[in-house]
Specification:
By secondary structure, the chain is mainly alpha-helical. The chain has one domain (2-81). Helices cover 64% and strands 4% of the residues. The chain is built from five helices and two strands; from the N terminus they run H-H-E-E-H-H-H. It has helices spanning 2-11, 20-45, 59-78, 90-98, 102-108; strands spanning 50-51, 56-57. It has a two-stranded antiparallel sheet. Strand 1 (50-51) and strand 2 form a beta hairpin. Helix 1 (2-11) crosses helix 2 and helix 2 (20-45) packs antiparallel against helix 3 (59-78). The chain starts with a helix and ends with a helix.
């Protein structure tokens, strides 16, 4: 589930791009997904999903569908498209990587 949370955050542009409201929605999505996975696993272990006397699905099937609908609504709220983190400028990248931008260092040196 932590992987799913990390994937959602990455898809939304990374930690710095995710708002507090989006974090709340992400947490709800992760919890809902956990419930869905457990309910689906339980249903797969059953001999039948049909209640013979009522000639319909057992109640958990309806509840699972409700959870799936809720999960899709949360994902729709977050946005289904993947967002890419804005790229750093070359100068910013070099500064973060090497401490001082080689572009700045070159400017301070005078040719001899």
């Amino acid at each position: 589930m932590l992987d799913h949370r990390a994937d959602l955050i990455t898809d939304l542009g990374g930690e710095s791009a995710v708002s507090a409201q989006q974090r709340g929605a992400i947490e709800m999505a992760v919890r809902t997904r956990l419930l869905i996975d457990h309910a689906a696993a339980y249903l797969l272990e059953q001999k039948s999903l049909i209640n013979g006397r009522k000639r319909g699905f057992i109640p958990l099937v309806r509840e699972l569908q409700s959870l799936v609908d809720s999960y899709v609504r949360i994902l729709t709220t977050l946005g289904l498209e993947r967002r890419v983190k804005p790229a750093l400028s070359l100068d910013s990248y070099l500064t973060s990587r090497y401490g001082e931008s080689p572009l700045d260092a070159d400017a301070t040196h005078t040719p001899t």
